[in-house]
């Protein structure tokens, strides 16, 4: 059985740390989208208006915001399921982080890190969620986490 202390805390410290890193990744991802869309010159919205006109830009903005909300909600759902000891959620988060790291490395190998003249901070910011997700994975596969996921699977949770 899992100790009473672990049950009250939602899992071992490593799992809670991975959960907090996942929440931070979601927050940084949303922040990067907001900055890239509305704040950083030349913002994505300005570029879309120039290319597509006002209505096209608003439609694209709505689709982009919808995708952000959907992926953030899914990531949040998986983080809560992972914290509850669901090994399937840990596996989905692992595969997702692996795919994102693959795309990051693939992009870097083809283009290098294309730092923009006016947005090096933004360029770094958009990659931080991937690094936070990888950090969460480190904690999710520590011995205490492995034991927690194994015990919750045997308890039928």
Could you tell me the radius of gyration in angstroms?
Answer: 19 Å
Number of strand segments: 0
Shape: elongated
Give me the number of helical elements.
7
The number of domains: 1
State the end-to-end distance.
12 Å
Helix amount: over 70%
Strand content: under 5%
Largest sheet: none
Provide the residue-averaged pLDDT. Answer: 84
Commentary on this structure:
It is a single chain. By secondary structure, this protein is mainly alpha-helical. The chain has one domain (about 10-155). Helix content is about 80%, strand content about 0%. It is built from seven helices and no strands. It has helices spanning about 5-10, 15-40, 45-85, 85-110, 120-125, 130-140, 145-155. Helix 2 packs antiparallel against helix 3 (about 45-85), helix 2 (about 15-40) runs antiparallel to helix 6 (about 130-140) and helix 4 (about 85-110) crosses helix 6 (about 130-140). It is elongated, with a radius of gyration of 19 Å. The N and C termini lie close together (about 10 Å). Residues about 1-10 have low confidence and may be disordered.
